[in-house]
Design goal:
alpha/beta; five-stranded mixed β-sheet; 56% helix; 17% strand; elongated
């Protein structure tokens, strides 16, 4: 039914397909009129002497009128292939075909009885010719063919039956059926072809649109070369990418155009060799990265192409697409650079150093040689960074990296691990002495003064080294062992080079176990306090005690403060431990005479704790100790990390009445500057100056005299530390120190022994009384 046109299926644009089906009517109008004219002449010739002329003339007038009317309508369908055909147009064409069929049915019904059997057979032959022509040539009009054949065929069968010619009637019936079925099948084939043609046209239009859109994009183009690899059919976008006119590019070798000046000397980029090889082998390629030199600048292109062959299978060239990926490549290179290089110094970062060390170890394994890894840490850099700011610190690191690059040689890679840590990878250690020489050169070079923003800065360097594969068969092992060696160098005071030794593992394991025990020392009540007296230089009476922390570990026994105090500071365990010391010291001081003070050492980690002042106030309140009897002892190192916070905290404590003593005065970097900023209650002269003064060392004598004079002028007290002999005592008294601390008057003692000192004093006073 859909083929004939009685109904349209739900799916598909059948109005558009009917347009393709009916568009052939206009092209066949003249041929159809000529066929009908010839058939009409045959009818007139057959029945001219047998039928009244008036009937013949009337029939001819009727036939001409319906044919002209149909022809006019058919001409209106000349553009049907470019539009949709409506149902009204289909009905009109059907009615037109019906009128033509009725006009041709009249001769058989009206003229047939006037003739003989031969005349009727001649007329049938003419009608059969028209029906056959309609079925063959008007395949686009199955409805018209079926109507024409049906109406004319029925009239012929009726005429044959009326005359008793039953055989002719039967033959006519069979012929009409065959023609009708054939017309439908031909129409089906014709419509199928039109549908396929429409699909191909639609696909072609979509492809054209896509290609047009592709060509109009900013970064992509089409390109084509012939069998000789010369550019053909230059697209506008391709010409724009090359910065030339399409006419100038036509026929030029593709490699020459892309290579630029390199075409003359033959020194092509490796990517061009790869492209030329692909073209030569006539193989497809995709996303091939090529460097193009255009007007003196380099661009990166991504090309894809496939070989073309003609109908005979002969290779005729390549056709492909391309895009400019310069910006994407530069972005990728920048990302890759940032991933492998330090942005501040421009040196390789930890990732690249690790890769370099891996390559060096692979080289050592292959050639049975040695490689080395040196880890460098700057001494006193944190003081610079915290006091002068990160901007100065960054400039200093840049100057350090510049010096490092001047030290290393070929086969050595220098980089920055992070912070103030640097490293050097030595690929081939042919001479074991080279590592020691390199480490000494690094320490000596980096220890030279730096001038940054009108500041003269002094930092040193510590170096730890490990040799591969002797000290580690893997990158991770060698890194860890070099770090252990560096830790030992820092632990020894810095400014030195330490090589890895297996014993360092034992040291590191000991430190790990010590840290574990330290974390549980408070809850196990393993800490205790001892007290060292401080006496008046004139009367030798005890005026205060310094509380000193001792640790008697269940696993490690008695641990030296020099070992566990730095560990507590590194792990920030010093904060809870220091809080415990404050509470216990204040409680014990309540057992002494009211004029005797207690001094407690405080680290920088404690001062940076935002709750430290509250901790001190809590300890005083819990014990009932008056604030003026508590003296907080600090060293100059507390001002290195954050001088503002430290100073503010100490000023708050002095505001409630606590004293603040500056310990180890003269051993730091800016002692006089601290005295100008803060009014300390006591200045403690380091024992090295005390011993030097007792030996009449001019520098030590001058320093002690200056400190005493300055303290007197600032209304501060002075305490000489480390007095162990009578000669040192006499010297300190002569120089004017007000208080003395040292083994000469008493070693650190237990709380009971400290209380015993006052009991003896009271007994002697009662006896004297």
């Amino acid at each position: 039914m859909a083929v004939i046109g009685l109904r349209d299926p739900v799916e598909g644009d059948w109005g558009r397909l009917r347009g393709l089906q009916y568009s052939s009517l206009a092209r066949l109008t003249f041929a159809r009129l000529m066929a009908h004219a010839v058939a009409a002449l045959l009818v007139l010739q057959t029945f001219g002497g047998r039928v009244h002329p008036a009937l013949l003339v009337g029939w001819m007038a009727l036939l001409v009128s319906v044919l002209i009317s149909g022809a006019r309508f058919d001409r209106s369908l000349v553009d049907a292939d470019r539009r949709r055909v409506s149902r009204q147009e289909m009905h009109r064409q059907t009615i037109s075909s019906l009128f033509v069929a009725l006009a041709w049915a009249l001769p058989m019904l009206v003229f047939g009885p006037f003739g003989d059997a031969a005349g009727r057979m001649t007329l049938w032959t003419v009608l059969a010719m028209l029906m056959t022509g309609m079925a063959v040539t008007f395949a686009a009009m199955p409805m018209a063919t079926v109507l024409f054949s049906g109406v004319v065929g029925v009239s012929a069968v009726a005429a044959f039956l009326f005359e008793g010619e039953y055989t002719a009637a039967a033959v006519s019936t069979v012929f009409v059926v065959i023609v009708s079925v054939g017309a439908v099948e031909v129409a089906r084939t014709f419509l199928g072809a039109r549908v396929a043609e429409a699909g191909m046209a639609e696909k072609s239009e979509v492809v054209s649109l896509l290609l047009r859109e592709f060509e109009e994009r900013d970064a992509d183009w089409l390109w084509q070369v012939d069998a000789n690899r010369r550019i053909r059919s230059v697209s506008p976008r391709f010409a724009f990418a090359l910065g030339a006119d399409p006419e100038d590019l036509e026929g030029k070798p593709l490699i020459q155009v892309i290579a630029g000046p390199a075409w003359e000397d033959g020194h092509f980029h490796s990517s061009l060799h790869d492209l030329a090889e692909r073209l030569k082998r006539r193989e497809s390629f995709s996303n091939l990265l090529v460097r193009a030199t255009l007007h003196g600048s380099h661009r990166w292109w991504e090309l894809s192409a496939s070989p073309k062959v003609d109908d005979n299978g002969t290779f005729v060239g390549f056709r492909g697409v391309g895009s400019d990926v310069t910006e994407q490549r530069e972005s990728a290179e920048k990302i890759a650079y940032l991933a492998r290089y330090d942005t501040l110094t421009g040196l390789p970062n930890r990732l690249m150093l690790t890769e370099a060390l891996g390559d060096a170890m692979g080289y050592s394994e292959k050639w049975r040689s040695n490689c080395a890894f040196l880890m460098i840490d700057l001494d006193r850099f944190k003081a610079v960074n915290d006091t002068l700011g990160h901007l100065v610190g960054d400039q200093l690191l840049a100057m350090v990296s510049d010096r490092m690059t001047r030290i290393i040689k070929d086969g050595e890679v220098c980089g920055r691990l992070g912070g103030d840590e640097f490293a050097v990878v030595v690929r081939d250690v042919a001479d074991s002495q080279r590592i020691a020489e390199l480490a000494d050169a690094i320490i000596a070079t980096l220890s030279q003064p730096y001038e940054v923003d009108h500041h003269m800065l002094y930092v040193g360097a510590s170096v730890g080294s490990a040799i591969g594969p002797r000290d580690g068969a893997t990158v991770e092992t060698l890194l860890r062992n070099a770090d252990l060696a560096l830790y030992r160098a820092k632990d020894e005071g810095g400014g030195s080079h330490c090589t890895y030794e297996p014993a360092l593992h034992a040291h590191a394991e000991e430190r790990r176990k010590l840290e574990f025990s330290l974390r549980h020392a408070l809850e196990r009540s393993e800490f205790g306090l001892v007290f060292q007296p401080v006496v008046d230089a004139t009367s030798e009476a005890v005026v205060s005690f310094e509380a000193l922390l001792r640790w008697n570990s269940e696993e490690h026994g008695s641990v030296s403060p020099a070992k566990f105090i730095p560990l507590a500071e590194d792990t920030r365990l010093i904060v809870p431990i220091g809080e415990w010391v404050l509470r216990m010291a204040c409680q014990e001081a309540m057992n002494w005479p009211p004029h005797v003070k207690i001094a407690v050492n405080v680290s920088g980690e404690q001062l940076l704790d935002p709750y430290f002042a509250e901790t001190v106030v809590g300890a005083l309140a819990a014990s009932g100790l008056p604030p003026h009897r508590l003296e907080i002892e600090v060293t100059e190192s507390i001002f290195v990390r954050d001088a503002t916070v430290a100073q503010m905290t100490l000023e708050n404590l002095m505001g409630i009445g606590c004293g603040v003593a500056l310990d180890d005065f003269g051993t730091g970097y800016s002692s006089l500057g601290y005295l100008r900023k803060m009014r300390f209650s006591t200045i403690k002269v380091d024992r090295s100056f005390v011993q030097g003064a007792a030996k009449d060392n001019p520098e030590s004598l001058a320093i002690v005299r200056a400190v005493v004079a300055m303290a007197d002028s600032l209304d501060m007290s002075t305490t000489a530390e480390g007095v162990e002999t009578e000669a040192e005592l006499d010297t300190i008294r002569r120089l004017g120190c007000k208080k003395i601390q040292g083994y000469y008057f008493g070693r650190p003692m237990s709380a009971a022994d400290a209380r015993g000192l006052f009991s003896q004093t009271r007994i002697l006073e009662r006896k004297a009384g």
